[in-house]
Write a structure and sequence with these properties.
Number of helices: 12
Shape: globular
Strand content: under 5%
Oligomer: single chain
GO molecular function: hydrolase activity, acting on ester bonds
Distance between the termini: 37 Å
Organism: Sphingomonas lycopersici
Protein name: Nuclease
Helix content: 40-55%
Number of strands: 0
C-alpha cells in the first residue's frame, strides 16, 4: 500500500482529445501554425509515457516525476519553490528531518513520490517561447519557418501531456491508484480505479473533441505569473480527487450512461484543453517580445537570489 502504481493519465483517447480541442480553439491571433500539426500532435499525445519504461532507467528516473503532483506529500512546503532543484532539495531536507520519527511518510518524501509536474510544464512552456521566437525571426526574414514550427509541435506534445495529466484529479494526490491510509468512507483501495476512470470510461463513452470544445470558453491567462497559474490549475484539479472516489463507489465506473461521471470527464478534459490552449497562446505572445537581459546573470554569485545549493537564481 505504500507505493502507488505508475499512473498514465487519460490513456490515449483523453490525451489526444485534450490536445486536439486545445489546438482547434486557438484564436486567430494565437499560434495558428499549430493547426497544421494537429494530427501529429494528437496522435503523439501519449508519447511522454513511453519514456517511462523500466528498461530505460536513465529516462525513467528523470521522466516519472513529471507526471504527478502529490500535494499531500509537500503540505509542509510554502511557498512552492520556483526551481525544480530547490524543490527537490527541500524534499530531501524534510526527509532527513522525519526519517526516524515518521518512516512511512519519509518513504514517500522524495522526488518520485511527490512529483515535478508544474516544473515540467513550465520548462516546456519556456522552450515553446524560444522556438516561437525562431518562427517569428524566420518569418521576418522571409525564410522557411517549417523547422522551428516542427520544434514547437514537438514541445506542444510534451506540454499537452503534462497539462493533460494535471487535469486528471488522481494525478494530484497520493491516492492516485487506490485510497491510502485511513479510510472512514470506505473508498476503494483497488489500484485499477485509475484506469477504469480515465481509460475504460473515456473509451466507453467515445470521448471526442466536439464533446468538450463548447465547454472550453474564451482564452484566459493572458497576464499574470504563469507558474502561479499552473499551480492554481493543479489545485483545482486536486480538489476533485475525492469526487472520483465517491463516483467510483456508486458502480465502479461500469455504467457508461452515468451522467455525473460524464460531467466530471467533460469538465476535467475541457479544463486541460483550456489551460493548454491558454499556455500555447501566451507563449506565442511572449515570443513577440525580445527577451530582457537579466543582470546580474542567474549564475552570477552577486545575484541577490543566487542559491549556492543549486548554483543558480530561481526564475
Amino acid at each position: 500500500m505504500l507505493f502507488p502504481a505508475v499512473a498514465h493519465a487519460w490513456g490515449g483517447t483523453g490525451h489526444a482529445v485534450i490536445d486536439r480541442a486545445a489546438i482547434q480553439t486557438i484564436p486567430d491571433d494565437g499560434p495558428v501554425f499549430l493547426r497544421r500539426y494537429v494530427d501529429y500532435i494528437s496522435a503523439s499525445a501519449a508519447l511522454p509515457d513511453s519514456w517511462r519504461g523500466d528498461s530505460e532507467g536513465f529516462s525513467k528516473i528523470e521522466e516519472d516525476p513529471n507526471h504527478g503532483w502529490f500535494r499531500e506529500q509537500f503540505a509542509f512546503l510554502k511557498p512552492i519553490p520556483r526551481s525544480r532543484y530547490e524543490f527537490i532539495l527541500a524534499l530531501y531536507k524534510h526527509y532527513e528531518t522525519i526519517k526516524q520519527s515518521d518512516p512511512a511518510t519519509a518513504a514517500r518524501t522524495n522526488v518520485r513520490w511527490t512529483g515535478t509536474l508544474p516544473y515540467a510544464a513550465m520548462e516546456t512552456y519556456e522552450r515553446l517561447i524560444v522556438c516561437m521566437r525562431a518562427i517569428r525571426a524566420a518569418q521576418a526574414d522571409g525564410g522557411d519557418a517549417s523547422v522551428p514550427e516542427q520544434h514547437c509541435a514537438f514541445q506542444a506534445i510534451r506540454l499537452g501531456h503534462y497539462i493533460g495529466d494535471g487535469a486528471q484529479p488522481l494525478h494530484i494526490s497520493v491516492n492516485s491508484d487506490g485510497w491510502l491510509g485511513a479510510n472512514p468512507n470506505g473508498y476503494t483501495r483497488d489500484r485499477s480505479i485509475h484506469g477504469r476512470f480515465e481509460s475504460r470510461f473515456v473509451d466507453g463513452i467515445g470521448l471526442a473533441a466536439a464533446d468538450i470544445m463548447p465547454r472550453i470558453g474564451a482564452p484566459a491567462h493572458r497576464h499574470g505569473d504563469m507558474f502561479d497559474a499552473v499551480l492554481a490549475f493543479l489545485d483545482q484539479s486536486g480538489d476533485r480527487m475525492e469526487t472520483v472516489y465517491k463516483l467510483e463507489k456508486r458502480d465502479g465506473f461500469s455504467n457508461m450512461a452515468d451522467k455525473d461521471v460524464r460531467v466530471l470527464i467533460y469538465e476535467r478534459t475541457a479544463a486541460g484543453a483550456a489551460m493548454l490552449r491558454d499556455m500555447l497562446c501566451r507563449a506565442w505572445a511572449e515570443s513577440a517580445v525580445l527577451p530582457a537581459k537579466t543582470t546580474p546573470s542567474p549564475l552570477d554569485f552577486s545575484n541577490p537570489r543566487f542559491n549556492p545549493e543549486t548554483g543558480s537564481a530561481p526564475a
